[in-house]
Amino acid sequence: MAPKLRILHIGDNIKYNHDVYARFSSEFEIIQPSAEERQREEFMRALKERRWGDFHAIFRPFWNTGGEMGRWDAELIPLLPKTVKIMASAGAGYDWADVDVFAQHGIIYCNGAAASSESVADMTIFLILSVFRHLAWSHQAAHSTNPQAFADAHKNSPLTARNPRNHVLGIIGLGQIGYTIAQKAHAAFGMRIAYHDLIRKSSDQEARIGGATYHDSLESLLANADCVVVATPFAGKTLLTLERFRQFKKGARFINIARGSLVDEDALLQVLDEGHIVAAGLDVHANEPYVHPRLARHPRVMAMSHNAGGTVDTHIGFERLAMENIEGFFLNGKALTPVNAHLLKSRSSL
């Protein structure tokens, strides 16, 4: 019998999918570094020493643990054994993992966005309602226990509040999460969907979200959307600058459920104060865990603590999907949610 492939399990023990883990651990040999070994310097030392020998995959089933070594970058990734072919991790974003460097070393990186799409989309629906109905203004006034603030919100917030129905929801990035947002917004609110992405969806996919309108340029989307949702990964630079915010339709709403680093927060404050953008919903922030103090106090900003994907259902899905990605790759020849497969293909064609 051939020896089992070896999996480096970083982070806590399995909590939810015990049946899947029983199968997974019967298929592969699992190696689990200690908490001390996961600290960056010790982790890198262990890789240099080949403390765990050759292994074939890296498995991170939880977002809250397993990231103690910090960013997976050009300093860390080259230390991995040449046998490593896949890393499967919890989490939807991957700004902590340099997927280009993974691809340079022939390693597929898989994230957990598919497991969090339902939870993130639900939070986005809440934020859509918040920005159209000025719920932050009403919420802050009620919690102030100040009768003048209450009376002001009661009287004046409805003067610019709108129902979302028939408004254009512009989504930047129509991946798994963006598409689920579109489905819910169209079904629940009767919103018209527009989107910008590098790859256009099929006509059937567009039809399933009310005949969505594709914009091949970001400028075109911003100029035509009544509410813009950012649902695209961070690609190393700020996407929403003051120049970009100026391209929004006057009176539009703005929501960010992707990454805070995509947004110039001072520019957002400027266009909010000018009234060019009338309300914002922010689940993510540029300097987490610190929130921009003026955004936190702004009566037309609904701010959350990066909890859009934060449900038990998401954590169950993250854990399961990480295992199934590795199983799919080694046992069926195809990972389920690869992020950088196109980069590996482009390198192999050189």
UniProtKB/TrEMBL annotation:
Residues 71-340 form the D-isomer specific 2-hydroxyacid dehydrogenase catalytic domain. Pfam families: 2-Hacid_dh, 2-Hacid_dh_C. GO terms for molecular function: glyoxylate reductase (NADPH) activity; hydroxypyruvate reductase [NAD(P)H] activity; NAD binding. PROSITE patterns: D_2_HYDROXYACID_DH_3 (PS00671). Keywords: Oxidoreductase. It comes from the Eukaryota. Gene3D superfamilies: NAD(P)-binding Rossmann-like Domain (3.40.50.720). The keyword Nucleotide-binding does not apply. Residues 126-308 form the D-isomer specific 2-hydroxyacid dehydrogenase NAD-binding domain. InterPro entries: D-isomer_2-hydroxyacid_DH, D-isomer_2_OHA_DH_cat_dom, D-isomer_DH_CS, D-isomer_DH_NAD-bd, NAD(P)-bd_dom_sf. Belongs to the D-isomer specific 2-hydroxyacid dehydrogenase family. This is D-mandelate dehydrogenase. It comes from Aspergillus bertholletiae. The lineage of its organism: Eukaryota, Fungi, Dikarya, Ascomycota, Pezizomycotina.
